[in-house]
Amino acid sequence: MPLFAVTYRYEAAQTDEREANKPAHREWLAARVEAGSIRTVGPFVDGSGALLLVEADDDEAARALIAQDPHYVRGVVPEITVREWLPVFGALA
Fold first, then answer.
1. What are the strands of the beta sheet with 38-43, ordered from one edge?
2. Residue pair 72/66 in contact by the 8 Å Cβ criterion
3. Which residues are in the YCII-related domain (predicted)?
4. 8, 24, 57, 68: which could join 50 in a potential S-S bond, CB 3.0 to 4.6 Å?
């Protein structure tokens, strides 16, 4: 199944709201990782956003999955990018 590199861009002005929503966001992520639809996820250390590796049939399915994330639902992710990614070497290849 194809992998998609999904990036979230965060805005500093929404930090408090994002922090308040973090437990629901992380619970949702953990369930998706356990189910296998998200392979790995984590924030950028500079606080600018996050990277998710999503396994989905196509771009539309990846976007539909992300649309369920409590951070996305609450509007604390003002911008996402979704790009199909083809790992050639390593653990995900």
1. 38-43, 49-55, 3-9, 79-85
2. yes
3. 4-85
4. 8
Q: How does pLDDT run across 31-88, given as a tens digit for each residue?
A: 999 999 999 999 999 999 999 999 999 999 999 999 999 999 999 999 999 999 999 9
- Structure tokens, 5: 């590199």
Whole-model pTM: value is 0.94
* Cα-Cα-Cα-Cα dihedral sign, residues 72, 75, 76, 81: positive
φ, ψ at 40 (rounded to 5°) = -160, 160
62 close to 56: Cβ distance less than 8 angstroms:
yes
Q: What is the identity of the amino acid at 82?
A: V
